[in-house]
């Protein structure tokens, strides 16, 4: 884990030690293939892994999503000025309503929500951010006080 992700992970409690479905498995489902089992070595979270398997984000159950959340938040911050980060683009879209059943957003503690909001604020209001619009939309729709669909 890089230092940004390590700091973010401290905001999260009760994270699973391994996801029920890996991002690679979700990516396989997105291509209508069978999801391979999680493998700690093959599914080691790196920037390259997140970019290669970004389509898998939408297929993760709430616990698997929570497993990847600090990594995705850190990756988004590290790619704040990179308009070609498919993982950041897909991730920001996943932070928009509606929430799932069982809930992803609703599974977060107050501290964990604050970490998500802090990253979205940085992406939405930093001059160097190329992700201002999608971050602002996620804030307006769900994460900010008085959000439209909260």
Number of helices: 7
Please state the average pLDDT score.
93
Q: What radius of gyration results from the CA coordinates?
A: 14 Å
Strand content: under 5%
Query: How many beta-strand segments?
Result: 0
Q: What is the H/E order?
A: HHHHHHH
Low-confidence stretches: none
Query: Largest sheet, described in full?
Result: none
Percent helix range: 40-55%
Structural class given helices, strands, pairing? mainly alpha
Bulk shape: globular
* Terminus-to-terminus distance: 32 Å
Describe the structure concisely.
The chain is built from seven helices and no strands.
Question: What would your notes on this structure say?
Answer:
- The protein is mainly α.
- It is built from seven helices and no strands.
- It has helices at 3-9, 23-30, 47-52, 62-78, 86-94, 110-125, 132-143.
- Helix 4 crosses helix 5 and helix 4 runs parallel beside helix 6.
- The longest helix has 17 residues, at 62-78.
- The chain is globular and about 40 Å long.
- The mean pLDDT is 93.
SSE map:
Layout: H1 3-9, H2 23-30, H3 47-52, H4 62-78, H5 86-94, H6 110-125, H7 132-143
Descriptive key words:
50% helix; mainly alpha; 7 helices; single chain; 150 residues
